[in-house]
Amino acid sequence: MKQKLKAQMKERVASIAYNGKGFPSPFLFKDLKKAALKIIEEMEKRTEILVVGDYDADGVISSTIMAKFFASLNYKHARVAIPNRFRDGYGISKQFLEKHHAPLIITVDNGINAFEAAQFCKEKNYTLIITDHHCLQDDAIPDAYAVINPQQPDCHFIQKEVCGALVAFYLCYGIHQLLKKEKTILASYCV
């Protein structure tokens, strides 16, 4: 039995698409490359970016990961906003976006059920990128530019049960990987 388990583990590990540094490739997430390329494109134009987090521990850590990442690239046009759960409700919403908005909006640890907010972004011509880890509601996905969530049926990331902070980390990691390949001013910050 022990030998069989070892063989199964070895087979499973061999089948994972590692990138050579011990982490699975960020591009196993559905829409991650699309989102990362869009973020890079907007950063090169110095577009204002709004990161919308959540008030729980996972949401605060996810928001911090994004803030630290943009700071590490010396990108001064990104800001983080966390809705007040008593005044604004949970996560990104139309009401919240009427007060806090930007041409590019990225959610962390929320947004997978934000159908009204996604529609509002479309109407206002805001680009919405959703990063979340929560379960989908009836397999429905908001109409956003990109949705990065391992719970999506067609997502190939090796783990389905991850926290929002890991999804945010992988988005930053994907951006970093793409910037290292490009010859841009932003790429000079990636070592």
UniProtKB/TrEMBL annotation:
Q: Which Pfam families match?
A: DHH
Alphabetically, the GO molecular function entries are:
exonuclease activity
Give residue ranges for domain DDH.
49-177
Q: Give the matching SUPFAM superfamilies.
A: DHH phosphoesterases (SSF64182)
Q: What is this protein called?
A: DHH family protein
| Origin species | Helicobacter pylori SouthAfrica50
